[in-house]
Specification:
By secondary structure, the chain is α/β, with parallel strands linked by helices. It has 12 helices and 18 strands. The protein has 2 domains: 179 residues, NAD(P)-binding Rossmann-like Domain (Rossmann fold, 3-Layer(aba) Sandwich); 227 residues, Dihydrodipicolinate Reductase, domain 2. It is globular. The structure holds nicotinamide-adenine-dinucleotide.
């Protein structure tokens, strides 16, 4: 089934050796992470957080715990979230932070040295670029934009300003993910011919929710920003925007980027040559968007196929039926001539050898709870990258490539055919309709950044 979606709606080329060297570098950085040797270990950076929702607060907690932040300021268009985050800051450092509704005013008045961006995806590019142009180093959440053109524009701004951009792909530094990568690269899995990335979660039919007035203290118009101005609906904010294609890219743009990035971190190839995706809403039901009520509109299941030289990568997600028939509900299976490696999240990694004589091998996850992440390591690497003037572990360029893979999957699904991708030129070959979907039309007065 094809998803019927309305259409309106100077990192060097890293070869495997370069990659291994960069792995070794980041492994060394990580093992010493809590004891970062800084030029001046007492140096504290003026820090701002834009987007004080669930994940923004998680990042800020780790940033402040590192002891390297000062003069924290906060920005959110929802005064309720802003207040909760301000209380968190004041509990942690005993002083009330400055708060803002408009990120442009915060950047102008506070002139932060570090800016954390944890807003919905349709804001990542504009806010990252504004922060970079103000001279700040940026820690921005994945994906690196809402579409390919935005993501390219962030990469360009980062390189033009010579600033560090760490993307929130904490799996790049997570210890069990790194050891799985070493296991794969040791040849223990054999020749890997196929990789399957996936997330399966339970669910069912989705009934519409009534639109309502935005909560008091919320600037909904500014929340929508460059995206379409939909009626407010608690299904969208907070958090639910991921499943609304005006602001997110469904499961592929959310979960997918992490696992596609793990594959790009393992292979010495930088991009697929061809992409095909199909998707639908067979269980959730047709999307509803009226003046009275709304459902989400992202697919409830999707398959995307990425052709690489020598192996095939698939992405699949379901928002029903979970995956109880198999052991794992999230992660990546690497299928090799010597067995299958499952690289998971809270379940660590497990290697299932072919045949019956080999021993199953397993390593537990090493993640922080709540929420199962490795933000402490990622933040430490961010600060170290700034001080050592090197690229961070989740640098904007590889993160851009992982995000682009997700965007290409969504474009293929929208046009209903496979795409030939020229990754060196970052062009979809011979398909003007698909090419048009590499960018978007912004709502005035916002202007699409040029890439
Ligand atoms: N790396 C990870 O593992 C991971 C995990 C969870 C979330 N995330 C990412 O974190 C980001 C935030 O996700 P979330 O779950 O916290 O979403 P959320 O909806 O809970 O929070 C987003 C916040 O941004 C605010 N916001 C929206 N527009 C804004 C603007 N123009 N200026 C300032 N604030 C604005 C919202 O009001 C809200 O408080 C997303 O990009 C998501 O992909 C990453």
């Amino acid at each position: 089934m094809r998803l019927d979606l309305a259409m309106n709606t100077s990192e060097p080329n890293l070869n495997r050796r370069g990659f291994l060297q960069s792995c070794a570098l980041s492994t060394a950085a990580i093992s010493s992470a809590p004891f970062v040797r800084a030029a001046d270990p007492a140096r504290r950076y003026k820090t701002a957080l834009i987007g004080t929702g669930w994940w923004g607060k998680n990042i800020l907690r780790e940033a402040m715990a590192s002891g390297r932040c000062q003069g924290v300021s906060l920005c959110d268009v929802d005064a309720n979230n802003l207040e909760v985050a301000a209380d968190q800051v004041s509990d942690l450092n005993g002083s009330q932070p400055k708060t803002y509704k408009d990120y442009r005013e915060l950047l102008d008045k506070e002139k932060p040295e570090l800016v954390i961006i944890a807003t919905p995806d349709h804001w990542h590019a504009l806010q990252s670029i504004a922060a970079l142009r103000s001279g700040a180093h940026v820690f921005v959440e994945k994906p690196t934009g809402h579409n390919i053109q935005e993501s390219r524009a962030v990469l360009k701004a980062a390189r033009a300003g010579d600033r560090v951009v760490q993307v929130g792909l904490h799996r790049r530094v997570g210890p069990h993910y790194q050891s799985a990568r070493r296991f794969l690269q040791s040849g223990a899995v054999g020749e890997v011919g196929m990789v399957r990335c996936f997330v399966h979660q339970g669910g069912g039919k989705e009934g519409p929710s009534l639109n309502s007035a935005p909560p008091e203290g919320m600037d909904w118009e500014l929340w929508c920003g460059p995206g379409p101005l939909r009626p407010f609906n608690s299904r969208i904010h907070p958090g639910g925007w991921r499943q609304f294609l005006d602001y997110g890219n469904g499961q592929l743009g959310d979960w997918g980027v992490h696992w596609l990035d793990q594959v790009l971190g393992w292979t010495d190839q930088r991009y697929p040559k061809r992409v095909y995706s199909t998707a639908g809403r067979s269980v959730r039901g047709a999307a509803i968007h009226t003046a009275k009520e709304q459902t989400s509109d992202a697919p409830d299941h999707q398959v995307a196929v990425y052709d690489f030289e020598g192996f095939t990568l698939t992405w699949e997600h379901r928002m029903f039926a979970e995956n109880r028939a198999e052991k794992h509900s999230v992660g990546a299976y690497f299928y090799g001539s010597k067995g299958t490696l499952h690289l998971g999240w809270k379940d660590g990694w497990t290697f299932y050898p072919t045949g019956t004589s080999g021993k199953t091998l397993h390593e537990d996850a090493q993640i922080q709870e709540p929420d199962g992440h490795n933000l402490k390591l990622l933040w430490a690497d961010f600060i170290e990258a700034i001080e050592q003037k090197r690229k961070p572990a989740a640098d904007i360029e590889p993160a851009h490539r992982a995000s682009v893979m997700a965007f290409l999957g969504m474009i293929s699904c929208k046009v209903g055919r496979s795409l030939v991708w020229d990754g060196d030129r970052e062009e979809i070959v011979g398909d003007p309709q698909a090419t048009a979907l590499m960018g978007a039309t912004y709502r005035a007065p916002w202007q699409m950044p040029s890439a």
